[in-house]
Write a structure and sequence with these properties.
five-stranded antiparallel sheet, four-stranded antiparallel sheet, about 375 residues, Neuraminidase, Immunoglobulin-like, mainly beta
Amino acid sequence: MMAFDEARGRVVLFGGWRSPTGMLNDTWEWDGAAWTPVATTVQPSPRAAAAFAYDPLLQKCLLFGGADAGGGYLNDTWEWDGANWQQAFPANVPSARGYSQMAFDGNRSRLALVGGWGVNQFPGGGQPSYDAARDHWEWDGLDWMLVASQIPSPRSNHLMFFDSSRARLVRFGGLSYFIPKSNETWEFDGVAWVQAPILSPPPARNNPCGFYDSWRGGGVLHGGFLGTGSGWASTNPVDDTWVLTGVGPATATSYGAGCPGPAGTMALQVVQRPVMGTSMLLAVANIDAMSIPLMVVGLTPIVVPIGGIYGAAGSCVLRTTLDIQELIPPTHAWSLAIPNDPSWFGLAILNQAAQLSFDSFGSIYNLSLSNAVRSTVGSY
């Protein structure tokens, strides 16, 4: 079990399994140059497969459960403050388990514990005693709280991390009694778990390792077991590496009021969001028949009053930079092809319709603007 202590700038390693001597309960730290054993008078019992993560608010590492030397599972809670191990005795405790995953949920400012192996899902008999858990718990520094007793699917031996760029807990792969391996990606936005529609996911596996790479802005997954043949839980190890980027919904939000023209105030409406591999589509209502309508496209929001220019009303405000201006077709709809390119993910696009209205002599006598729309390119 390993976690990074941000406050102290140390990687903390605890316990594990070593052949042929069995389970360990030693504590080591890595400072970027060397590993150093840390002698403690009190420490958790020997174990492997425990959940272990760092809480940046409490500035402590938290350890929960794991597999003991006798083949059973534990549900004790321990804190590491950089010098000492201290056992916590909360009022509420998740069931005993190993191979669960824990990560700090930045949305809810708490450590999240999800899944694990060791739960009796079949109390009526006729099935094996153990299976993967399907619950979601949080640690607030004093007690465990159950967030959801029935997340969408039971899972153990999976990968989980918090994607801080998109504010999501991300869960990938893993296994349950009936599913030896998975390539599903699930995300928790602070309210609900939703499966992310990944177009080309890594091959299904259990026991992958990984983390969130804040430099790249994406999750990193490495290795695991493809779980083929007999003894599927620990067969066919692989050493491939994958990076999860460009995952999240496309959004489109209207903001700011338009200003009136001869046919009323133009209304810019979203027909299709900017999903990668499709086309973004906007429609414009209330275009004057005697006008030249333009779509203004920008990448930077601005607030520039233009009242009085070409007779524009005093309420006229330009809300995007003039990076691109295109004629709006007679269909009064404007589209933009969004390539299926991860580099486009998260790109913000600002749109505002403008029209120059002409009198019977061909002279411009009015300039008007629509509301603005801010869109963000997403994968679904």
